[in-house]
Amino acid sequence: MARRAARNSILTRLVLIPAAILAFGILAAVAATLAGARARIASEMASGFALGDHLIRYALDDLAAADPAAQKAATARLAEALAQVRHIRVAFVAPDAEAPGPAAAREAAGAPGWFTALLRPPEMATSYPILVAGARRGEIVMKAEAADEAAEIWSGLVFLVALLGLLSLAIVSLIIMTARHTLRPLRQLVEGLDSLGRGEFAPLPDVEVAELAAIGAHFNRLSATLARSQADNRLLIDRLMSVQEAERKELARDLHDEFGASLFGIRAAASCIVEAASEKTVGPAQKREIVERARSVSALADAIQKQNYRILERIRPMVLRQMGLAEALRQLVETFRAQGHDIACAVEIAPAAARRFDEEASLTAYRIAQEGLTNVARHSGATRARVVLDVAASPRGEEMRIAVEDDGAGPPPELRSGFGLLGMGERARKLDGRLVIGRSAFGGMRVEAFIPVERAEAPDHSPTPAEPNGAAAVHDDHNAQEASL
């Protein structure tokens, strides 16, 4: 897997592909040079051979007609002239010699033997008899020599390969430097993703490569969003724990102050009734005391029942289960008005929304409306507000829309969600819904939630003897936690 990743590396591809092209170019240059090398050597050998032939023939004519002194001078001139002719080797062969001896030998250096043998054309050689005063004095043997031209071609080829090799090395080095500089943002992005996996949301430095700058900007926005989401989650967890603790303290205080005192009063009244009833003769005064004590017990029981209803109403509104969401919202708005806020509040229920919804969707919409009105009273500075409940079709099916609007200051340019908005958003997301915050038709703020719903049948919620007024229908810890949100 590591080898495959190395082969698929962008840096490897950026280096190997140009390197392969440059190597192919060097090979093509070498092939082009060698393609005409044999013909070039043959041409040079033929040219040198022809020039040597003319020089030797002219010199032999002079030797045949000259005196001994002139012959010696002509021989010297011939040797000097032939020394200047390239690509030939000339030897003087005595009349009785079996093999020609070297004449003015010149060593051609540079080309390896295999290279010369590879490019050597067919051998060219001829001999010229030396006649002096009609007598044969030996012969001159001339052979074409490919070593000189092969050495020139070899040296040119070596220079060309070295030059192209250096240029290729420089180009590949520049490509590597450029690729490393260009791919640095990608390495930083990988490191940043690793940091995100570890829960670290540090932004990337500015990307200098224009094509990758957009990726860096998107990554930084993602990092900031994740950091904000993590902070919001921690805020919600802290808020949840603090609200749960506050709810426990309030329940404990209610149980101690209200229930405890009432139950103590019931015990005292019941003891007085028992004591009065146990006397042998019960007169009018004892009867009146028994009646007063019984009334006291009844009043204390009524107070306990009201306190119990108030606590259960805070945990989960009973009207929501008994009468439905529409009626619960109307009572919520009535309660909001009765609390003395200087805000004119209205509720609008669309005909399509005047029906029963499932319990989770109804409770979520109710809590969002409740928190929305709380935010209006605390933060908006509004003079009027409106709660809207509607049902509309969407690509996902039917959606309930619950909105709270006001004519206050409206959302700030950079809205920072607090506990209320975070809680409303999480409630909507829990049911695969969404929360949208914008400007209302009044010019203030609009908070609306879209919650997927299904039509639910209205269950029978008639109270039972064990559950007076239906108040004991909800009493588990899960409901208490939902109320604390």
Written overview of the protein:
This protein is of the alpha+beta class. The protein has 13 helices and eight strands. It has helices at residues 2-7, 10-35, 37-65, 68-83, 113-119, 147-197, 210-277, 284-315, 318-323, 325-338, 359-380, 419-430, 477-484, and strands at residues 88-93, 125-132, 135-144, 344-349, 384-394, 397-406, 434-439, 445-452. The longest helix is centred in the middle third of the chain and has 68 residues, at 210-277. It is rod-shaped, with a radius of gyration of 55 Å. It starts with a helix and ends with a helix. Mean pLDDT is 75; it is low at 99-108 and 456-485.
Task: Please sum up the structure shown.
By secondary structure, the protein is of the alpha+beta class. It contains 13 helices and eight strands.
Q: State the end-to-end distance.
A: 49 Å
User: How many strands?
Assistant: 8
Q: Could you say which structural class the secondary elements and strand pairing correspond to?
A: alpha+beta
Described by the principal axes of the CA atoms, the overall outline is rod-shaped
How many DSSP helices?
13
Radius of gyration: 55 Å
Question: Strand content of the residues, in percent?
Answer: 5-15%
Low-confidence stretches: 99-108, 456-485
Order of helices and strands: HHHHEHEEHHHHHEHEEHEEH
State the strand order across the main sheet: 4-5-6-8-7
What's the overall average pLDDT, rounded? 75
Please give the share of residues in helix: 55-70%
